[in-house]
Design goal:
The complex is a heterodimer of chains A (about 300) and B (about 90). With about 300 residues, chain A is α+β, with helices and mostly antiparallel strands. Helices cover about 35% and strands about 30% of the residues of chain A. In chain A, the strands form three sheets. In chain A, strands 7, 8, 9, 10, 11, 15, 16 and 17 form an eight-stranded mixed beta sheet that branches. In chain A, strands 3-1-2-4-5-6 form a six-stranded mixed beta sheet. In chain A, a hairpin with a 2-residue loop joins β1 and β2. In chain A, α4 runs parallel beside α5. The longest helix of chain A is centred in the C-terminal third of the chain and has 18 residues. The relative contact order of chain A is 0.13. Chain B is of the alpha+beta class and about 90 residues long. Chain B is about 40% helix and about 30% strand. Chain B is built from three helices and five strands, in the order ββββαααβ. In chain B, strands 2-3-4 form a three-stranded antiparallel beta sheet, with helices on one face. Chain B has a two-stranded antiparallel sheet with strand order 1-5.
Chain lengths: ~300, ~90
Amino acid sequence: MISKEVFNKRIKTDGVNIELGPFSFNIKTTIPNAIEEAYINYKDHEFLDANKFIDFHISLERPKGIRRWIKPNVEFYFDGHSPFKPLPLPQAYPMLEWGMNWCIANYGHYFLIIHAAVVAKGNKAILLPAPQGSGKSTLCAALVNSGWRLFSDELAIISLKDASVFPCVRPVSLKNESINIIKSRFPDARLMPSVHDTTKGTVSLMMPGLESVKQGNCPAKISAIVFPKYQLEVNGKFEVKDKSQTFIELIQNSFNYHVISNQSFNIAGDIVESAYCYEYIYSDLTKAILDFDSLVDLD
Amino acid sequence: MMENITIAGNLFIRCFSDGVVVFNGATGDTHKLDVLTGKILYYLESSMSIDNIKSTLEIEMPEQSIVDIDEYIGKSLNMLHEYSLVVVDERRVE
């Protein structure tokens, strides 16, 4: 584990080189709360030497001029360019995480990238593709606090060679009501302080568990694709979903299907063909955890 | 009247038990087709003539009348044409 002193010094000067699954990031910033939260979230990850090739060079910077002092802002930079509008300074750390997602989704074209949470037990991974507001991250957080290994709560990174899914172990982004749901259901879950008034409402990032981080380079086979949806007062149940429809919804959730076209068509087809495909409407996390545990026993 | 059918180039077809998906490499579009339409596209891609497809479907779907099969093929060709997966060119033959 890297010491806080070394981490702080590096991130303020040359940047820290962090390996996240198949990608590597060089992260630079001098913003104190972003440094603090980056250290808490990434201290157990693999750090790369300065001479290693880095995929993404990113930084968080405070703008010069009046916005440095009045309603202070923060800007995200990727290779020296700022692809987003500045955000209020208290949103610095979430902005770093969103920016990292953006880098992978826009440039990780050696993989098929799908907007989905991914969790695994043993060598069996489950993809949870769903739009924002479906309860995907809440379910993902509940599962990883119940013995499942976290791959990602946002991005399924799928090999174009063998359709296996790679971990990219980073914090789970909990929003609004789901923050208190997870806090009260899992008092040991380690959540960052809530950040209010973001475009997604109130956001709190949940740290990944050490076991997930340790296995951050071990891909798994996708054994099921489950489209989750939170709904009040329903008895959680898996409903088998048509494979052809699953295929269409899977590619609709992809960031780069259209970029890698026929190769991604073949890979998405292989995944759907070999995986169980379900819809899962749930309201009770305890039942959901039991139901998902039963998926591991499927051949 | 006869139909001249041309298949779009660079098609990728994946058949599932409940439907077929097809990627058109020329347009970059992906479409979901019902099983029968997917099957007809698959046969057309294997250079089968419409007459051969008709007789094959008659064997595969003995419960359907020839009129129904003709109707299915007509509807499927319309759909495939709409999706630019085939070009159906109707020519009047003297």
